Amino acid sequence: MSITTRAAVVESGGAPFTLSDVQLAEPAPTEALVRLVATGLCHTDLGVASGGLPFPLPGVLGHEGAGVVEAVGSAVTGIEPGDHVVLSFTSCGACRNCRAGHPAYCVAWLPLNLLGGRRADGTATISRDGTELGGHFFGQSSFAERALVDQRSLVKVDPDVPLESIAPLGCGVQTGVGAVWNVLKPGLGSTVLVLGAGAVGLSAVMAAALTPATRIIAVDRVGERLSLARELGATHTINAGETDLAEAVAEITDGQGADGVVETTGNVAVLRQGVDALAQRGTLVVVGAPPFGTEVALDVNGMLSGKRVVGITLGDAETQSFIPDLVDLVKAGRLPLDRLISTYSFADIDQAVRDMSAGKTIKPVLTFGVSSFSPSGGPPSGGV
Questions:
Q1: At residue 349, what are phi and psi to the nearest 5 degrees?
Q2: What's the rounded Cα separation, in Å, for the pair 310 and 289?
Q3: Taking Cα atoms as reference points, which of 342, 349, 337 lies closest to residue 379?
Q4: DSSP string, 193-219
Q5: Which residues lie closer than 8 Å to 47 by C-beta, 6 or more apart?
Q6: In angstroms, rounded to a whole number, what is the distance separating the alpha carbons of residues 286 and 105?
Q7: Which residue, 3, 6, 35, 211, could crosslink 24 as a Cys pair with Cβ 3.0–4.6 Å?
Q8: Cis ω before 58 (30° cut-off from 0)
Q9: Which residue, 46, 28, 235, 58, is CA-closest to 132?
C-alpha cells in the first residue's frame, strides 16, 4: 500500500521547489521507510534543479537526510524501527571498488545516485496522481517528510546527537573531511591549502586542524568566511579578491608551496592556481565540480616535480564507519558543524535556496517539525 507524504518537487529545470503531496511506492525488501527530521541543502541539489544535469524532472531531490526509521524491508539488516540514521549515497555493494571499501567509486554510482531517478531495477519510488516522478536521488530523495531509502544509504548513528546537527555529514562534510584524511593525510610540518571557504572547504579546514599539519591556509573572497576559517583552525587566510594567491602562498611557505591543496570552487582558473601553488611532490584534490566536459590546461613541465592531481567523490569514504566516527567528533565538540549551519523550516526551502545562492548562509539545513537544535552559524529557523 502506497504512503502519501509532503515533498518539495522541482517541476522542470530552473523552476522553484514546490510543496506537493506525493505517493511513495511499496517499500522494496532492501529499503527502509524513514521519517525525516532534517536534511541539508547542497549545491548539487541546486545544480540538478537548475537543469544542469540530466536527472528526470519533475522530481524530488535531497541527499543529506537525517531521520528516524519507521519500517524496514525483509532484507534490511542492522537497522530497525526507531533507529536514528544519517542518509548518504548508495552503491551496488558488489563491484570491485565497493568490495575494496571505496563505494564512492562504485561502477554504478552515477545511475544509482545522480542521474537515474529510479531504483537499479528501473522502478520508481515516487509518483504523484498516478504519474511517476524522478526519485531515488542518492538512494533517498530526502526533500520530503518521509522517504524510501536504499539500505546502503542508511547509516545508524548515536541517538543522543541532534539529527539537525549532523545531517550535512551525508555529503558535504564527509567530502571535505575525507579529502584531507583519506587522500592528503598531512604530516607534521606540512602545509594544507584550502581553496574556497564554503561548507566543503570549511569542513576541510576543520579536518586539517585535527592533523599534525603545521600551516592551514584558507582562501576565499568573503572576509566573514575567512574570519570563520580562522576560528575553525586555519593558521593563515588569503582574500583572493585583494591578494595574489601565488605570492601569498610563497610568502607563507618560504617559497616551498603547499604540500596538499583542496580545490572546492569548481572554477578551473582557481584549480590551475592551486596546481601552480603545489610544492614538489604535492597533491591537489579536485572536489569542486564544474559542468560536464570542462577542461583545464596544466604546465606539463611544472608537473614533473612529482605533483599529483587527484579527483575525489564524497571524500572516498566508507560511510558505515566514517560517518559514525564523525558523529562522535561532533558530539565531543571537536568538529563544530554548528558553526556552519543555518536552520530553515521545510516550508521555507526556497528562502534557503535564495540565501545559499546569495552567500548569506554556508550550510542550510531544512527541519521538519519542532527543533530543539540551536545552530550558531547563521540565521534562525525561517532564514533571515
A1: -60, -40
A2: 13
A3: 342
A4: EEE--SHHHHHHHHHHHTSS-SEEEEE
A5: 53
A6: 15
A7: 3
A8: yes
A9: 58
